[in-house]
Records
---
Amino acid sequence: LDRSGQALLAELLRAEAARGAAVLLSSHDLDVVASVVDRAVLLHGGVIAGEARRRAEQSNDAFRHELAGLG
């Protein structure tokens, strides 16, 4: 997806999550992941290599940095 499509999809996923829906997002784009999820799992070779949960006060940038450090 291009940037505008990513932004629209992220907005729709956040809206569904706010309504109480469980959302599963698979992506290599950590910016999109950090802007949508509260919990992320990093897979390497099909095996869980790391996991992170967003803290209440954590910004998207700080969460993205934490996600990048999992690998």
---
Amino acid sequence: SELVQGLGGKAYVAGSLKEALEIWPQVQRELTMILSDMSLGDGTGLEFLSAIREGGSMHPFCIVSGFISQQ
């Protein structure tokens, strides 16, 4: 979020899938894209993407992960 804000953008941070879904209705009109971690503690970025797509959102959506495979 600091990088986005440093570039003049606005960022909203949610620590869980539940929190992301709770703030979504209030912030969706302000966003131009969504950047989500794959792991949201109580769910996944894919679940968040699915939920907002079901609600009609067509925002560009990028899922990232810090997970490193041991293989």
---
Amino acid sequence: PRPVRWGGEGVSADGKASLKVGETLSLNASVTPDSVADKTVQWTSSDEQVATVDEHGVVKGVKAGTGTAAP
């Protein structure tokens, strides 16, 4: 595994954010060290009934609840 740092506008220092149903949040990731050849990041959601995340790191609130989106 390679280290990945991620965040986005609206994400707090502890990595948390709140979304209302229908709202979106764009996450970004950086893979380190710079010498890593494959910097592909695959985003996942812990509960797609609460929040989805697409291949570009865009999280969308689906319904009330708690979930995790991470690379």
---
Amino acid sequence: TLPTNHKFSMTIDHIQPLSKGGDSMKYNLLAAHRNCNTRKQDRWKGNPFQQSLSDILKIQNEKFWKEKFQC
């Protein structure tokens, strides 16, 4: 197990950041290395590529939870 402050320790990333109107529902959450999550910060609308990728991940994650757990 890695120490919590290690750059490769796991964190929970909000695909759409809370500061940009995101929520903490399971379809908006992904596991991310601390280094990646820190680098992403609260980017959402400032980078069109990031937004498109984030939208795709959020939709795929939501479909996964609905299919697997009927919620």
